[in-house]
Amino acid sequence: MNINETVGIIYDTIFYGVAYFNRKSLAMHPDLIGTDERTRFFHYNNLRSTTHVPDPPDCLLPLFYYNNHRCSVLTAYFHKYFNYFSDTLADFYSMLRDKSRFKKFVMDYYFHDTFNEKELQKLCLSEGQTVLRAAEILSQIIEIKYHSALFYHFNEMVDTAVEFLTQLIPFIQTYRSRRKTEALDTLQKFMVDDIQLLVKKRRLKLDDSHEVQLEKQVYSVCHINQYIVADFCIGNKYIFVLGVDWSKVFSHALNPPHVTMQSVMTALGHPVKVEIVNELRQQDLTISQLARRLHLARTSISRYVQDLLNELVIVRSRKSGPEIYYTLNSTYLRYAKATFDEFLDQAILDSDKAL
């Protein structure tokens, strides 16, 4: 397993600033509903309470601003220009010091829905009326005292950002170095067969013919940004970015599988498969136990169980000696129910119209 520490360091560094300025918005993130605030900010709070970590200057708020609809502009810039497989911290700083490109990106990020290309160019040149309009728009979400530097002192703001990040990163590195075991455990959880199957089928949208071995890909672990599940690809090579608590919001982070009526019927359209699901409603069972309960050969049950595994209707729950226990995948069942409900509601509506 290849581990790229740099990506996790930068993610944690950026997210520290995001959490500092936007704690309330982060607390309302839909994927985290049901987790208490203390849990959500455990590593952020721990870092701040155990070390003298510098606070980001107020003028940097526009770079870290987050409102639950999209990532911060600094995160977006990092995504666009950083090579996750080969770039270093020095490359990250160089990205920021490319002030002309960075400013163009920031202005486009905030104002591409409002200004045309020519107006964005004027904005980058800090031309009068265009700046006043932009400042008025941005003031609806960020107080003017926090964003004036964005328009009139951008280069100085970037210098301040680089200085702050240079001071912060050693604290992040030290914090991470003390938690190497936790990071390794995070990666090991991701290597479980059923998780790999879910990632391939639902996130990467790969079928069984694709020879992508996830254990041979590149990984980075985040602590402060502890719920993230992200992937980036070049050719047939992937890098996965995982928060230490990624599994708590796994079904959200992976995006809902596209469950259609056809796929549900394929997954469950056999009496034996339905009986297996019925048995697993009561308790987790092994193939041998299912074979005895359904009075079928173990080889037959194995084939149906494999089909259900491939469609993620069931997953492996635990291993006891040579036997593997299987359990229902409640996430899949919820999506299947929603698909059936939508199909039947539409069928009833169409039928009523035809009367």
UniProtKB/TrEMBL annotation:
The keyword Transcription applies. It holds the Pfam family HTH_5. CDD domains: HTH_ARSR. Residues 254-348 form the HTH arsR-type domain. Keywords: DNA-binding, Transcription, Transcription regulation. It comes from the Bacteria. GO terms for molecular function: DNA binding; DNA-binding transcription factor activity. InterPro entries: ArsR-like_HTH (IPR011991), HTH_ArsR_DNA-bd_dom (IPR001845), HTH_MetalResp_TranReg (IPR051081), WH-like_DNA-bd_sf (IPR036388), WH_DNA-bd_sf (IPR036390). This is Winged helix-turn-helix transcriptional regulator.
